[in-house]
Design brief:
The chain is α/β, with parallel strands linked by helices. The protein folds into 3 domains: about 80 residues, Up-down Bundle (Four Helix Bundle (Hemerythrin (Met), subunit A)), CATH 1.20.120; about 190 residues, 3-Layer(aba) Sandwich (Rossmann fold), CATH 3.40.50.300; about 150 residues, Signal recognition particle, SRP54 subunit, M-domain (434 Repressor (Amino-terminal Domain), Orthogonal Bundle), CATH 1.10.260. The longest helix is centred in the C-terminal third of the chain and has 22 residues. The protein is about 55% helix and about 10% strand. β5, α10 and β6 form a beta-alpha-beta unit. It has 23 helices and 8 strands. It has an 8-stranded mixed sheet with strand order 3-2-4-1-5-6-7-8, sandwiched between helices. The chain is flat and about 70 Å long.
Length: about 475
Amino acid sequence: MFDALTDRLTGVFDRLTGRGALSEADVEAGLREIRVALLEADVALPVAKDFIAKVKAEAVGEAVIRSVKPGQQIVKIVHDALVDMLGGDGEPEGLNIYAEPPNVIMLAGLQGSGKTTTAGKLALRLKKEKKRVLLASLDVYRPAAMDQLATLGKSIEVDVLPIVAGQMPADIAKRALNAARLAGHDVLVLDTAGRTTLDDEMMREAAAIAKIATPGELILVADSLTGQDAVETARRFNEALPLTGLILTRADGDGRGGAALSMRAVTGLPIKFIGVSERPDGLEVFDARRIAGRILGQGDIVALVEKAAEQVDRDEAEKLAKKFAKGKLDFTDVEKQLQQVLAIGGLKGVMGMLPGVGKIKNQISEAQLDDSQIRRQIGVIRSMTMEERRKPDIISSSRRKRIAAGAGVEVSEVNRLLKMHRQMADMAKAMGKGNMPQAFGGGRMPSPEMLKKMGAGANMPGMQGGGLPGLPQGGLPGLPGSKK
């Protein structure tokens, strides 16, 4: 999300911060480029104009232009303006689910916006917070909509209201409320019906359900990929219903991000969550400060730590950390590390949260580092015998050919993985002695050729020490090699 906008803004800021002094004309030119970048990212025109006017009022002045680092001052002004546009500098607004149970969360939106999937994601999130959740589908129009929610609820082990054929949405809402009260559920999530387009009948039905259920949260689910259409949808729903917030789905596929940047300004409603994958846990809290940091290429280490904390078994990580410190990692351990990278978002997801990675995006692209390489490496490891995994030194030329054939790869890939393991073991031994290897010429960014030699599983410079590919120096809490 925001990839195109991040690239454009990074270019503008590099030019501004690369100069020792700035004239008013330099600032004006930079603001024009930022305005074009916002419009190309599909930000609503009035929102873009207001944003530029606000930044200009603070950026064009003696205090900034004559400051010691005027370029950095402008970056800060833009950052603060982005935070304000996305929801302000306070803590993200949580869900209003602390009244007398059952607390009702009602999801509204157009058909295909991802309401049912989002209902399941919310239920799983609340379940992790020790809440008893009941899911109920009120969509009697879309074929198999109720069955879809039932299947989803079963997969995440959350209760789902039984289907009663012939009932209308209002009656289902009443039955769901009664069932939630009787069974002692903390939260009831209502998945309402949508239409392919906005119409008065849908709005009347949603309003009637809201009147019956009196939800503490009435959230609009909107597809961020629809851009300005999503903004218009939010405006129309907000006029017809007492919405309390927004959830943007498919944010991982939205390279522009205009909907997210416009919706808060257009509706005044907080964006509570964004959907970042199709996985049941692919729902992130929308934090204005952290999103602004991502847009400006500053990364989001907090989100990376949170994902790691969710996905990594701490006891297992501690065992790996001890083996890593002794330089005794075998290929079973390497496979676990590679699996952990995939679990916390894959290479693209991890690196997108690391500060400054945007500036080396082209080098990473040339090196063709992606999740398919990680999966191939896992395939190579699984083609080894248990003895070969434990004792990589016994892997002879004939064994390499057999392993490559079993994994469906060239022998060169097996050789690359073996070399990577040796490098990781050497680094682990050095770290165990308190020495950090001065790899890649003292921490400089390696060339694409060197990255290719390293393979997807090798550590990026300046990110060594986690054992996991691409993690920050010193590792993350609870992960192998962490110093925390």
